[in-house]
Amino acid sequence: MKIDKRLYKYIEYEMYHYKDYKKEIQNMREEILEGSPSPSDGQPKGTTAGNPTENKVLKLSMSVGLSAMEKTVKCIDSALSFLSERHRKIFDMIYIKRRKDRYSMSDELFISYDTLNRNKNELVEAVGKELGVIKDF
Length: 137
Prior knowledge:
The chain is mainly alpha-helical. The chain has helices spanning about 5-15, 20-35, 50-60, 65-80, 85-95, 100-110, 115-130. The chain is elongated, with a radius of gyration of 20 Å.
């Protein structure tokens, strides 16, 4: 399947940031869950719940950035789960370790350069479908 260049770049952007998203999700969750409530100044606050646990649940469920990152990570994990081990290795080499040496990667995987690129494109397409930006007709 031929993917529009801008869409391809967007999907790759999300894949390159997979590791960063996972780290940021963990940091945000820890910050919300382990952060202490603000000191009370005695003034009523009309928009916050009185229960600190309730406040944490609300922050976790209402954080738009956190939700978006979690959705992206979940979609990439889902795509990787049904792809081959070779696809997962290619994902790790290119998008996690950020290797640029495609010829040595293909040698390492015992495949041709063209097969590496074809598998990379299949990987991008699968992630795009999981993200919902590529429609499966």
